[in-house]
């Protein structure tokens, strides 16, 4: 069996991850599966732990947390867009607020069932989205997106969700719903120029733009029902120039996976996107704030081995 490193974010899900680990660890020990465990700290992120682990010879990285933790872990497995060790695989055990990536890969929320599935699951290689964004100091930053990136209203919602203390009361889905609802009334559409796959250019007032690798985000919002993790494409959605009332009407479609059917929504499968605006437009990558526009998004086909 591959040498296993378990990486835990102790604050994921308002502390749920620690409870999940208390169930998973005895099961690993009962099965006689050797592993090494490390929790993130203020000074040592999941990305740092993962990077050190693969350089130390660990070939199987198991992340326990939410989408942000999983994303941070897989970023530690790469340097300059390539795997540090081509034999490494990644597996997720959910313990976050939204738990959206696991919906696409169909990993159970139950910790023991999740462990069972990743131990006995099939290996496959999936796509990622390379994101180049603008930092506060106007320099460029780079990050790999595992599940979904968006900008516009979503970026501001995520900023508030990640700083909210309401998750322990409302749960992940409840907090996303609350701030998404409030955002409907407080967020103003931004004029954004979008260039799709280098050829098609669109300039319009946009409320939200999505680049999806997985199907879900925001605690169950079904942005991209046709998305596949290994098709070499990302599902692009742009909600254009809508009023508050129109946006409210679209919420039902969003949870039903029918948003792309709306006349004010552009929906395409693309491989690359460039976005710019003269206004401040914030970016969300896998539930974490990641700078602002201008930004570039590009599919990296079949670069991440996973087992689940």
Automatic annotation (TrEMBL):
Stretches that traverse the bilayer: 166-187
Keywords linked to the UniProt accession: ATP-binding, Kinase, Lipid biosynthesis, Lipid metabolism, Magnesium, Membrane, Metal-binding, Nucleotide-binding, Phospholipid biosynthesis, Phospholipid metabolism, Transferase, Transmembrane, Transmembrane helix
SMART domains according to UniProt: DAGKc
One of the GO biological process terms: phospholipid biosynthetic process
Annotated ranges, domain DAGKc: 1-135
The UniProt record lists the keyword Membrane: yes
InterPro entries (UniProt xref): ATP-NAD_kinase_N, Diacylglycerol/lipid_kinase, Diacylglycerol_kinase_cat_dom, Lipid_Phosphate_FormReg, NAD/diacylglycerol_kinase_sf, YegS/DAGK_C
Record bears the keyword Metal-binding: yes
GO MF annotations, alphabetized: ATP binding; kinase activity; metal ion binding
A Pfam family of this chain: YegS_C
Enzyme Commission no: 2.7.1.-
GO cellular component, one term: plasma membrane
SUPFAM superfamilies (alphabetical): NAD kinase/diacylglycerol kinase-like
NCBIfam families: YegS/Rv2252/BmrU family lipid kinase
PANTHER family: LIPID KINASE YEGS, SPHINGOSINE KINASE
Protein name as catalogued: Lipid kinase, YegS/Rv2252/BmrU family
Organism: Leptospira terpstrae serovar Hualin str. LT 11-33 = ATCC 700639
């Amino acid at each position: 069996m591959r040498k296993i490193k378990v990486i835990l974010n102790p604050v994921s899900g308002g502390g749920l991850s620690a409870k999940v680990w208390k169930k998973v660890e005895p099961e690993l020990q009962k099965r006689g599966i050797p592993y090494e465990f490390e929790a993130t700290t203020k000074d040592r992120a999941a990305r740092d732990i993962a990077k050190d682990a693969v350089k130390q010879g660990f070939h199987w990285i198991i992340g326990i947390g939410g989408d942000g933790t999983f994303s941070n872990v897989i970023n530690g497995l790469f340097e300059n867009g390539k795997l540090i060790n081509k034999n490494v695989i990644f597996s997720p055990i959910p313990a976050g607020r939204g738990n959206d990536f696991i919906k696409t890969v169909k990993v159970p929320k139950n910790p023991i069932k999740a462990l069972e599935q990743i131990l006995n699951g099939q290996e496959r290689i999936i796509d990622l989205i390379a994101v180049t964004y603008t930092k506060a100091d106007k320099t460029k930053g780079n990050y790999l997106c595992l599940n979904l990136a968006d900008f516009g209203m979503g970026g501001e919602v995520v900023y508030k969700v990640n700083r909210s203390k309401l998750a322990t009361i409302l749960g992940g889905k409840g907090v996303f719903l609350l701030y998404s609802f409030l955002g409907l009334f407080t967020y103003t559409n931004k004029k954004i120029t979008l260039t799709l796959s280098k050829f098609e250019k669109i300039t319009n007032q946009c409320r939200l733009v999505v680049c999806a690798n997985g199907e879900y985000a925001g605690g169950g919002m079904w942005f991209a029902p046709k998305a596949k993790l290994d098709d070499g494409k990302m599902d692009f959605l742009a909600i254009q120039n809508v009023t508050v009332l129109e946006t409210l009407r679209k919420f039902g479609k969003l949870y039903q996976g029918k948003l792309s059917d709306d006349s004010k929504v552009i929906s395409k499968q693309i491989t690359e996107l460039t976005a710019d605006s003269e206004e401040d437009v914030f970016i969300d990558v896998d539930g974490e704030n990641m700078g602002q526009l201008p930004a570039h998004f590009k599919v990296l086909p079949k670069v991440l081995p996973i087992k689940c």
